[in-house]
Amino acid sequence: MKILLWTDIEKLGKRGEIVDVRDGYARNYLFPRRLASKPTPGMYKEFELEKRRQAKADAKLVSDAKQVAEKIAEVGSVSIEVNTNEEGHLYGSVTPTMISEALRDKGMKVEPKTVEITDQIKQIGTYEVTINLHRDVKPVLKVWVLSSKPLAAPKEGAPAEPQKESSPQEAKG
User: Fold this and answer.
1) Which residues contact 120 (CB under 8 A, 6 or more apart)?
2) CA atoms of 75 and 103, how far apart (whole Å)
3) CATH code of residue 118
4) Are residues 93 and 46 in the same domain?
5) Which of 40, 60, 80 is the last residue of a domain?
6) Region of residue 54 (left: phi > 0; alpha: psi -120 to 50; beta: else)
7) Does 18 fall in a domain?
8) pLDDT tens-digit profile of 7-64?
């Protein structure tokens, strides 16, 4: 049976192509899920209307994503304060949700699933993360990870390892 695909289907074809499939696959799977239809002139017209609607919706998504990307570029960076030990190692790690909340505090609504962290953030410092707003719009945001408590600064001239002080009993014995 020849069918008109309404969506891209892996190992079958791209959207808008006419492909040949078995009758049962078309009737029981593709047609009920509106993934495909019979290639009639009426369906071609409906397909073209759907294509135009999809193009309009996609253009709106891109324009909205570009507006958010401009706001992110204006902000440039966000600071996240986390609990750390004395050396600056985090208890846990910075998550996309934390970055999303930091952006929300600055007045931008960004979903945590769009925040892409390449490496785990487990120490204080500056990191760059990508925000996947759209397949064409991916701004980069600088994230400053700060400690919520003061870090122990190493003293100059002090040994790296603390020396064990001898107790008075050890000196006698």
Assistant:
1) 93
2) 9
3) 3.10.430.100
4) no
5) 60
6) alpha
7) yes
8) 888 899 888 888 999 999 999 999 999 999 888 888 888 888 888 988 899 899 889 8
Q: Which pLDDT does position 16 carry in this prediction?
A: 83
DSSP helix/strand/coil, 46: helix
For residues 68 and 47, the answer to whether their CB atoms sit within 8 Å is no
Residues 82 and 107 occupy one common structural domain = yes
Q: Strand, helix or coil at 13?
A: strand
**Same domain? 93 vs 132:** yes
**Percentage of the chain lying above the pLDDT 90 cut:** 26
* SS3 assignment, position 60: helix
pLDDT attached to residue 158: 43
Q: How far apart are CA 45 and CA 25, in angstroms?
A: 24
Same domain for 83 and 134: yes
**What is the arithmetic mean of pLDDT over 94-98?**
91
Place of tokens 């919520």: 148
* Statement: residue 124 has pLDDT above 50: yes
**Does residue 33 sit in the same domain as residue 94?**
no
34 token code pair: 């509106």
